[in-house]
């Protein structure tokens, strides 16, 4: 789908809404989690009102992040499956990082190989966080598990939590680095030049689809 100014729809409204809702819930859950992990920043739990309120809300915010990511998983998994052409991106990683264009086309689909790796790591981390979080949730479930399971769950939760925060910091850095992608996630649209430069195979597939549609319209007249 295109707009009159010839930009391309990259992310639909429901997907964008979900992404930014996940960002908000993730930020609040992460801040409260960090405030218990590092005593020097315990003041951060005040961001959710009071430390008691943070304790109460943290698991629900985590479940909201999980639910949002389930929706995003369903919408984006198809474009994040490994493709043969991902090998080119890995092979040319230096050119990608140095923003050097030209030479052999990178044949990048809707998401590049790095985004795909990040996608699967984010999904794996949230699953570990959900399962371990439920096990250690004192109000409802913790009493059903032996202490050794609780200790393992607390360890897994801390490791996955810190891991996911680091992944998201990388994700934000890359979103800023690739100029135009945040605008894409806000408005839904990217320019054709952006698509051609960063996701050449995806852009080519869109053009082929448009040409087929125009052809079919021409035959119908
Ligand atoms: C300020 C924080 C964030 C910014 C600026 C940001 C930015 C973006 C942008 C620009 C995209 C689209 C990339 C593209 O079209 O190529 C994207 C996609 C995505 N974001 Fe974020 N994001 C943020 C936080 C998060 C968080 C906290 C999560 C999950 C916990 C997340 C999960 C995702 C996922 C799953 C995708 C789809 C990528 C794919 O399918 O490979 N983002 N984000």
UniProtKB/TrEMBL annotation:
<keyword id="KW-0349">Heme</keyword>
<keyword id="KW-0560">Oxidoreductase</keyword>
<dbReference type="InterPro" id="IPR006471">
    <property type="entry name" value="Formate_DH_gsu"/>
</dbReference>
<dbReference type="GO" id="GO:0009055">
    <property type="term" value="F:electron transfer activity"/>
</dbReference>
<dbReference type="GO" id="GO:0008863">
    <property type="term" value="F:formate dehydrogenase (NAD+) activity"/>
</dbReference>
<dbReference type="GO" id="GO:0022904">
    <property type="term" value="P:respiratory electron transport chain"/>
</dbReference>
<dbReference type="InterPro" id="IPR016174">
    <property type="entry name" value="Di-haem_cyt_TM"/>
</dbReference>
<keyword id="KW-0813">Transport</keyword>
<keyword id="KW-0249">Electron transport</keyword>
<keyword id="KW-1133">Transmembrane helix</keyword>
<feature type="transmembrane region" description="Helical">
    <location>
        <begin position="149"/>
        <end position="176"/>
    </location>
</feature>
<feature type="domain" description="Cytochrome b561 bacterial/Ni-hydrogenase">
    <location>
        <begin position="13"/>
        <end position="188"/>
    </location>
</feature>
<dbReference type="GO" id="GO:0046872">
    <property type="term" value="F:metal ion binding"/>
</dbReference>
<dbReference type="GO" id="GO:0009326">
    <property type="term" value="C:formate dehydrogenase complex"/>
</dbReference>
<dbReference type="GO" id="GO:0005886">
    <property type="term" value="C:plasma membrane"/>
</dbReference>
<keyword id="KW-0408">Iron</keyword>
<comment type="similarity">
    <text>Belongs to the formate dehydrogenase gamma subunit family.</text>
</comment>
<dbReference type="GO" id="GO:0036397">
    <property type="term" value="F:formate dehydrogenase (quinone) activity"/>
</dbReference>
<dbReference type="GO" id="GO:0015944">
    <property type="term" value="P:formate oxidation"/>
</dbReference>
<dbReference type="GO" id="GO:0009061">
    <property type="term" value="P:anaerobic respiration"/>
</dbReference>
<feature type="transmembrane region" description="Helical">
    <location>
        <begin position="20"/>
        <end position="38"/>
    </location>
</feature>
<keyword id="KW-1003">Cell membrane</keyword>
<dbReference type="InterPro" id="IPR051817">
    <property type="entry name" value="FDH_cytochrome_b556_subunit"/>
</dbReference>
<protein>
    <submittedName>
        <fullName>Formate dehydrogenase-N, cytochrome B556(Fdn) gamma subunit, nitrate-inducible</fullName>
        <ecNumber>1.17.1.9</ecNumber>
    </submittedName>
</protein>
<keyword id="KW-0472">Membrane</keyword>
<dbReference type="InterPro" id="IPR011577">
    <property type="entry name" value="Cyt_b561_bac/Ni-Hgenase"/>
</dbReference>
<feature type="transmembrane region" description="Helical">
    <location>
        <begin position="58"/>
        <end position="77"/>
    </location>
</feature>
<keyword id="KW-0812">Transmembrane</keyword>
<keyword id="KW-0479">Metal-binding</keyword>
<feature type="transmembrane region" description="Helical">
    <location>
        <begin position="117"/>
        <end position="137"/>
    </location>
</feature>
<dbReference type="Pfam" id="PF01292">
    <property type="entry name" value="Ni_hydr_CYTB"/>
</dbReference>
């Amino acid at each position: 789908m295109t707009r009159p100014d010839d930009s391309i729809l990259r992310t639909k409204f429901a997907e964008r809404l979900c992404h930014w809702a996940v960002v908000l819930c993730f930020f609040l859950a992460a801040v409260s989690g960090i405030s218990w992990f590092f005593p020097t920043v315990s003041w951060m739990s005040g961001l959710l009102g009071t430390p008691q309120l943070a304790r109460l809300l943290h698991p629900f915010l985590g479940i909201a992040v999980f639910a949002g990511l389930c929706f995003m998983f369903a919408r984006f998994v198809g474009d994040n499956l490994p493709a043969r052409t991902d090998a080119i991106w890995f092979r040319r990683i230096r050119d990608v990082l140095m923003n050097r264009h030209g030479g052999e086309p990178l044949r990048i689909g809707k998401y590049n190989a790095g985004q795909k790796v990040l996608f699967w790591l984010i999904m794996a981390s949230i699953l570990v966080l959900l399962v371990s979080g439920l096990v250690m949730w004192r109000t409802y479930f913790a009493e059903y598990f032996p202490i050794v399971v609780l200790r393992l769950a607390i360890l897994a939760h801390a490791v996955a939590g810190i891991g996911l925060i680091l992944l998201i910091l990388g994700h934000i850095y890359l979103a800023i680095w690739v100029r135009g992608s945040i605008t894409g996630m806000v408005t839904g649209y990217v320019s054709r030049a952006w698509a051609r430069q960063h996701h050449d195979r995806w852009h080519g597939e869109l053009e082929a689809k448009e040409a087929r549609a125009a052809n079919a319209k021409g035959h119908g007249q």
